[in-house]
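task queued by scheduler; priority normal; single chain, no ligands, no partner chains; default sampling; output format set to structure tokens
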Amino acid sequence: MGFYWIPRSHDNWAFKTPESAIDINSLTSSPCRQHTLSAALENIQFNSLFSQSSVADKARLLSVSSPHASAWLSVVPSPGLGLSLDPNEHQMAIKWWLGLNTSPGSPPCALCPEHPLDPLGHHAVTCKRGGDAISRHNKLRDVVLQTCHRACLHKPSNWLCGKPAAFDLTVVSPLNPTFISEAGRTAGSAAVAAELRKHSANDAKCSELGWTCIPLVAESYGAWGSEAVQAFSRLASYLATRTNSPKSKVVCSLYGRLNLTLVRANARALLLRCGCSLQEGDISSSQLS
């Protein structure tokens, strides 16, 4: 099951891309899995879309296609655990994720009218008014803290070379004018820049205290910086050992919770700034913290 011979259909296969885009001989010389063929075709489609996109859309595409960025899409909805999206949130999240226009007509931001909303939602997810950025940070922090507690790491002392860890979490947008040019060429470049900035600001103070500074940087679309990925891998190892669970399952669960929390906060920020109503009972962003 799952294996296909395709030599006889080779001449009938209608690739709507240049011949150089895929080595058909490598696929027909031996049996290949459907996944292999699908992945090859998806790469062609991605590259075609990418080549025709604006710099901003290229930055978005590279970020959403980064490892773990789409983990939120696989989370089993669980309102009791805070792992769910209401219909308005889900619709806005999907539009934003796909790069559809989240604010037709570019109306002014409902919380800071001097700033017009942009189609890709950059202003909405980075706006400092209303406390949504702080609420998002705190919710992500709480997911990390809860995971540390479950792994019995109430204080990550002896995290690296006998030193305690000082986690510093932040969210950056690859559409930020400071990052967008490089973010449109290199996946994760906005997160890398933010990691360097955090080290520059915190390393000296952490060194005085005998701590190791570990920036936990998320791009707004869900791509995580390399230092966060390493930290989450180690944290998942501790939790997997503690709960006698496969590490791969723990990693998937952790990124699912983190990125659903991130996407939900972004969707709510977008809805508020577009003047859309939230779920009944929510009347201001201060109630989302």
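post-processing summary
- Confidence is low (pLDDT under 50) at residues 1-5, 11-16, 280-289.
- Strands lie at 3-4, 32-33, 165-172, 212-219.
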